[in-house]
Amino acid sequence: MIEHQPEPRWTAVEEYLSGLVGHAVEAALEAGMPPIEVAPNAGKLLKLLVQLSGARRVLEIGTLAGFSTLWMAQGLPDGGRITTCEYVPRHAEVARSNLDRAGLGHLVEIRVGPALDTLPALEGEDGGPFDFVFIDADKENNARYLDWAIRLGRPGTTVVMDNVVWEGAVLDPGRDAVNAPGIVAALQMMGTDPRLDATVIQTVGSKGWDGFALALVR
Ligand code: SAH
Ligand code: DHB
Ligand code: MG
Question: Partner of 92 for a Cys bridge, out of 2, 41, 86, 88, CB 3.0 to 4.6 A?
Answer without folding.
Answer: 86
